[in-house]
Structures are given as C-alpha cells and as structure tokens.
C-alpha cells in the first residue's frame, strides 16, 4: 500500500508492514522483525482478538532475561 509508505515509495531501510487476518479480525499493521528473539503480543490485542488461554503456546527454553533497544 503505497499510501502507507513514507514518501509514497518503497525503501529498503524501513520495516515491512503487512496486513493479516487473525481470529476473524483484519489486522492492518503487523511488524515483521527478523532480528527478534521473542514474539510479544500485548494483552489488550490478545483480548481484542477474543483469544483465550488455550491459544497460548508455552515457551520451552531459556528464560527471557530482559529487553534491549
């Protein structure tokens, strides 16, 4: 969607924004971060999508130590 791109054109130095359907909702902006080591969904988003605990997958591995920008 060119109207959503800064300056109206593609640029290799900006994040990729995509649209997706999740749990029967149109999610208009999804950030794909290939360098991310953890996938986080805010609780409000989880509730808005009307998901419940059975939709969660427990993480098996080392503990999350913190976030660095």
UniProtKB/TrEMBL annotation:
Species classification: Eukaryota, Viridiplantae, Streptophyta, Embryophyta, Tracheophyta
Organism annotation: Trifolium medium
Name of the protein described by the UniProt record: Gag-pol polyprotein
